[in-house]
What does this fold into?
Amino acid sequence: GKVKARTGSRSANTSPRNVYRTADGKWLAISASIQSMAKRLLEGIGRGELIADKRFCTNTDRVAHAEELDAIIGAWVGARTLADNLSRFADMEVTAAPVYDASQVIEDEHVKARGIIVEVPDADMCAFPMPGIAPRLSRTPGAIRRAAPRLGEHTAEVLGEIGEGALFGPAHRVIHFG
It folds into this structure.
């Protein structure tokens, strides 16, 4: 019977687990909610003493003081670029990943290597990036046969199927004459 309060990207059940802004204006998601990983994270950012702090000793304590802990972690992350943060968290063996905007997704090396985004021919733009076929099945891999139709591309064909003399009227209703 209770409505759960909003927490943004933070988890209401584990801590630290949130999204933080980096020095270069990008975003990083961190999940260090198990005890050993929280310890590695705090030691890795030079705040190992916090593991003994009663506010941060256990996951329950960290969740109760999540705003304080997020401020500490956020300040550390915010002083470094996304690339530097990713490298450092990898060295710490702490789960961290970039949070991409659309342009970053298209430029990601993994996305490129896996063919997750494909280029589809387009009359106006030469090519248009869009998500590829998923899932990719070995015996029936699927393919994008053509781009989406242009506005009005099939109008004559559709009108021909519903009868000669049909025109579009207000609110795209079909009006028949004769």
